[in-house]
Description:
Elements: H1 4-15, H2 17-31, E1 38-39, H3 42-56, H4 58-72, E2 88-90, E3 95-101, E4 104-116, E5 126-139
Antiparallel strand pairs: 1-5, 2-3, 3-4, 4-5
Amino acid sequence: MSCPxxxxxxRIEDEHAAIVEGIDHxxxxxxxxxxTARTTDRDAVATQLRSALEATGLLEQLPLVLTDVVAxxxxxxxxxxxxAPPYVVITSRGPMLRATIDPGxxxxxxxxxxxVRDDEPGRPPxxxxxxxxxxxxxxx
Length: 140
């Protein structure tokens, strides 16, 4: 019996390393002009990342990655994914891909930014550029 999470992770690492590198490059471009190592502008992070992914053609490739990853798990998608919710969501952490398969919802996150919460009440969270991309795959 296959493990969808393991199979999905393996497929991304083996076949889609260039996509991961592209996401990393786009995130680096966004963070470069920051005055400090972090920003509190959540919308700017997500909006700028979406624009950078779109400009490089990566946004249009993410549904293809999702289709390939789901096939690697031995399951099928119920519909053809598009580069928009619910299949592709650009968050303040990075791109997230989602698909409903037989055992549950497959969620793939490409975390390019960490959320840093301040202990002081009322202060907004900050977004800090990660050193590389953290790939998170889960079945919910």
